[in-house]
Amino acid sequence: MKLIEILKLSISTFKTHRLRSFLTTLGIIIGVMTVIAILSLIQGLNMTVEKQISSLGSNTIFVQKIAWGMGRVDFEEVAKRKDLTIEDGEALKKLPSVDKLSYVKSTNVGTITYGINKARNIEVIGSDENLQYTSNYTVTTGRFINEDDFKRRRKVCVIGSYIVENLFPNTDPLFKTINLGGKQFTIIGVLEPKGTFMGQPQDNIIIIPLTTFDEVFPRPVGFQRLWRSLSFQILPKDGKNLERTIDEIREVLRRRRRLGFDKPDDFGINTQQTLREIYRNITNVAFIVMIAVAAISLIVGGIGIMNIMLVAVTERTREIGLRKAVGASNRDILLQFLLEACFLSFLGGLIGLILGISSAKIIAALTPLESAVPLWVVIIGVLFPICVGIFFGIYPATRAAKLNPIEALRYE
Predict the structure, then answer these.
(1) Distance, CA of 31 to CA of 356 (rounded, Å)
(2) Mind giving me the DSSP string for 136-184?
(3) Alpha-carbon distance 207 to 124, whole Å?
(4) Half-sphere exposure of 174 (CA within 13 A, CB side)
(5) What is the rounded distance in angstroms from the CA atom of residue 179 to the CA atom of residue 186?
(6) Smallest Cα–Cα separation from 164: which of 124, 200, 114?
């Protein structure tokens, strides 16, 4: 019996028992729909996060008192660590692999006002002229702070787009003054919008010279010192190996901080790769949950297909006997029932694939999440149900193939 004839027979069987076939494939539909929807959303999330991580600055190395990570952090121990200093930064600038190094301190000033307008949750960053390179900032109007501003401790600032929208909705913000820490700062530049990073806005910032920052915002005492301590953002030279640059930075800092060879680092060196690893650890949990849900649904769906195929073998026993009597081989019978199981499973998978993609698109349209459907997701949505159909269809097909034709013809 030709393959195409067997396929036509499978479709005919499906048409004869449409409702039963649909209910049989319901488990496959739910399983595939769940997998495709979650994979599409995670893929969209991956693209968004990768874009946001890259916006921090390509290959930028962040040197701080604390290392980024997922584990439990002893903040009291971190707060007691020796602070990074300008002298540490000057020593790192001399490394042959370092291109740019910017000093960074920051504090949250809550709400600032201009006339009747207000901007909330504002972060003030004290830094130098290199920050625009290490943090990948682009000035759309005016200019960035420069070396002269840094040396002369000028009260000038560059503001993010969120502040422009909220404080200066209908006016040019350049050369206007805003109050920070009781001092008047002149706006000299506006930054290009960067959106959010991991849900946190990046455009609610005000950048001022670090020397001015230290005057206006004295360092707090106690535990709060941790959050206003100095950190570095370092950009390696083009062509320099990132890992080697990190090793050189670590060696310089350990030597300057007099750490013994058996002592751990009392500072953190973080990169975009660190953020990617944190993100992957989070999404791995989602993957495990997804696999568990999908596996249960597909097993239930596969058992449903096996059950309905066993019923079909019983119902069509005389038909099997008749086919064998006119020359059909065991292989033909086995192939027929196996293809019917695969067809049912494939059909369920196809419906699940369409529903999964549609669900992801609807969620993406109604929420800030994005979705993406790469080709490999579609291939999984099609091939996996077929594999389920083969696995759970083997037993009923084998049982049909082994039927004795004489006994099958006598079956009532």
Answers:
(1) 9
(2) T--EEEE----HHHHHHT--EEEE-HHHHHHH-TTS--TT-EEEETTEE
(3) 6
(4) 11
(5) 9
(6) 114
DSSP for 266-322? Answer: SSEEE-HHHHHHHHHHHHHHHHHHHHHHHHHHHHHHHHHHHHHHHHHHHHTHHHHHH
The structure tokens 């650890």 sit at 281
Do residues 180 and 206 touch, judged by C-beta distance below 8 A? yes
Least confident of 70-79, 90-99, 265-274: 70-79
Which residues are registered as beta bridge partners of 159?
Answer: 190, 206
Higher pLDDT, 52 or 185: 185
Q: What is the pTM of this model?
A: 0.68
**By C-alpha distance, which of 118, 108, 107 is closest to 178?**
118
As a whole number of angstroms, the distance between CA 131 and CA 211 comes to: 14
Task: Name the nearest CA neighbour of 352 among 38, 19, 32, 22.
Answer: 32
For 216-253, write each residue's pLDDT tens digit. 988 776 666 667 789 999 999 887 788 889 999 999 99
Structure tokens at 255: 């030597």
Q: At what angle do helices 375-401 and 26-55 cross, to 10 degrees?
A: 160
Give per-residue pLDDT as tens, 379-395. 877 888 888 888 888 89
d(CA 212, CA 215): 5
* 75, 93 contact by CB (below 8 A): no
The region that residue 142 occupies, defined by phi over 0 for left and psi between -120 and 50 for alpha, beta otherwise, is left
Instruction: DSSP for 16-38, please give it.
Output: HTHHHHHHHTHHHHHHHHHHHHH
Amino acid at 136: N
- Between β-strands 200-201 and 98-114, what pairing exists: parallel, antiparallel or unpaired? unpaired
